[in-house]
Amino acid sequence: MITYEQFIQNRYTYDWQPSRLLPVLLGQEPLRDHRCLWTYLSLPLENLSEQQAYSILEEVWLSWYQWWHPRFPNI
């Protein structure tokens, strides 16, 4: 699970990229990116080892991400 502090740190990491400086100064992009896709995946461990559950969740996440990536709204 991600904490609020981790979320904010990630946000600052991606909001303050040098490659975004010019588009922000030209008014082409906002300074802060308020988009967020919060995803919570869980799986009961009944009859599964932690490694098996992790592998399943990782596979589901990759599929979910690949579906969302082209559909995520632009800044």
Task: Report on the architecture of this protein.
- It is a single chain.
- The chain has 3 helices and no strands.
- The radius of gyration is 17 Å and the shape is elongated.
- It has 2 domains: 1-33, no CATH class; 35-75, no CATH class.
- The model has no long low-confidence stretch (mean pLDDT 89).
- 48% of the residues lie in helices and 0% in strands.
- It has 75 residues and is an all-alpha fold.
Itemize the secondary structure elements and their pairings.
Layout: H1 4-15, H2 21-25, H3 50-68
Protein name: Cyanosortase-associated family protein
What is the string of SSEs from the N terminus onward?
HHH
Overall geometry: elongated
Q: Give me the secondary-structure category.
A: mainly alpha
Largest sheet: none
Percent of residues in β-strands: under 5%
Termini distance? 26 Å
Report helical residue fraction. 40-55%
What is the β-strand count? 0
**Rg, please?**
17 Å
Number of domains: 2
Mean pLDDT: 89
Uncertain runs are none
Number of helices: 3
Protein name: Cyanosortase-associated family protein
Organism: Lyngbya aestuarii BL J
